[in-house]
Amino acid sequence: MGFKAIELKGKFIIKAKLRLLTGLHIGTSGNTLDIGGVDNPVIKDSYGKPYIPGSSLKGKLRCLAEFYFGLLKPGSVVYTKQSNDDGSIRMHMCGEENCLVCGLFGRNHGNHEVIEKNDQKESVGKSFDESIVPTRLIVRDAHLIDESITEEMKDNMDLEYTEVKFENSLDRITSAANPRQTERVPANAAFECNFVVNVFNDDKKKYLETLIEAMKLLEDDYLGGQGSRGYGRVKFEGIEIEYRDKDYYSGKGTDEKKKINAESLCKIELDQLKIE
Ligand SMILES: [Zn+2]
């Protein structure tokens, strides 16, 4: 694959509220010392408020899209280093120029071990440095909307922004419970989400459409931990999509807003969004 000119045509700015339908647990890595806290705390910002790291949201959306587009197959799955431990995880990555997932979520540069056969022990080193299109999607950290946690909710909560659930594992012989605490953000709380999709060359709305598909898949899956126990059901609300082209950045444009709104993902009418 040779070098091709890449021109930024504009950016889609997507804003949405992420509403929790069930409690959310996104844990912290390692053993952070949460003084006076619970066994299994949720990740919090420097003000002590729970938030959703952009990397968690992006990683989950990518994972759902990889399965959805059938990309987890020999020849396009690589071993990649996970940031917080020495172990490797397996994920999709390929050098295909038109791959929607790699094009939207990006590729890690450098050498990766590609799993070539069904036998996962056999892998070959491959570099993706020639697939130089920059990552299109940016996912910002999603901050808690304070008002979404009402006084009434607070009356039933254990901590200022969170509740503590006891999860029991039962010993099958003695029936003794082995309780474990899990901190979670309560149902009905909401976070402010912010995505940017860069538009290069003749992308048009292709990658924006892929992002919206992945967001819909997330609504029928879960975010964070313990999803099979009912945690992490989410819904996007109050969606706003704006297209910012060069007129916007240079300040020479008209006042004409290139913006659409939708109350839910299924109500987005992308053909109403004029990008030319
Ligand atoms: Zn790919």
Which labels suit this protein?
single chain, 30% strand, 4-stranded antiparallel beta sheet, Alpha-Beta Plaits, 276 residues, 7-stranded antiparallel beta sheet, alpha+beta, binds zinc ion
Describe the structure.
The protein is 16% helix and 30% strand. The chain has 276 residues and is of the alpha+beta class. The protein has a domain at 8-69 and 134-144 and 187-269: 2-Layer Sandwich (Alpha-Beta Plaits). Strands 1, 2, 7, 8, 11, 12 and 13 form a seven-stranded antiparallel β-sheet that branches. A four-stranded antiparallel β-sheet has the order 4-3-5-6, with no helix packed on it. Helix 1 crosses helix 4. It is flat. The model has no long low-confidence stretch (mean pLDDT 87). The structure holds zinc ion (ZN). The site of zinc ion has 7 residues, from helix 2.
